[in-house]
Amino acid sequence: MEFGEEREEVYNALGKSEHRFEYGLRKAGTLRTCFKNSGTRDAGVRYSASIGHRWDHEKATVKHIDPTYERLNNVEAEVSKLMQEVRYHKTRATRAMHTVKSVNARVLRWSLIEAVVMVCASIYQFYHVQTLFMNRDRRGTMRV
After folding, report:
1. Is residue 20 domain-resident?
2. Would residue 111 count as lying in a domain?
3. Higher confidence at residue 100 or residue 3?
4. Which candidate, 58, 59, 79, 80, places its Cα nearest to that of 69?
5. pLDDT-derived band of residue 13, with 50, 70 and 90 as boundaries?
6. How far apart, in Å, do the first and last CA atoms of the chain sit?
7. Mean pLDDT value of segment 4-27
8. Can you say how many angstroms the Cα of residue 125 is from the centroid of all Cα atoms in its chain?
């Protein structure tokens, strides 16, 4: 949740599973960010904020220079935005890999347990049928 200076709620992502979001403010001021975990486990938060637009209008106006030169003046902002994207995607890939490894470990564990149970059931069936045949004589009647 983001709160403005008058304690008004500016943005709320409660109940959403989005990874990034944008919002605009009506007026400049100080913001307060609150993170609340409603789950039963501890969770980590990686927070990265990009505030405002990085335009340097004092260098020249559009009528004095062409758009290509203006883009060259703002290369630093573009590189910063690109590096922020790279960090975001690396973090997301790391988190996804952790989830994949966790799921794979659980699947392997349950598969092994299932295989052991099936082998034990087969051994039990074999011995049970063997004892049934051992209790019969050659004519097919039960021994007492």
Report:
1. yes
2. no
3. 100
4. 59
5. confident
6. 80
7. 68
8. 45
Structure-token pair, residue 73 = 């003046």
**Residue 68 neighbours by CB under 8 Å, 6+ apart:** none
Q: What is the mean pLDDT of residues 128-144?
A: 71
Contact 45, 35 (CB under 8 A): yes
Number of folded domains that form the chain: 1
Cβ contact 29:3 at 8 Å: no
Cα angle, residue 54 at apex, residues 48 and 56 outer, rounded to 5°? 160
What is the arithmetic mean of pLDDT over 14-32?
A: 69
Question: In Å, what is the CA distance from 92 to each residue of 39, 45, 46, 87, 95?
Answer: 20, 12, 10, 9, 5
Length of the chain, please?
Answer: 144
* Domain contains 91: no
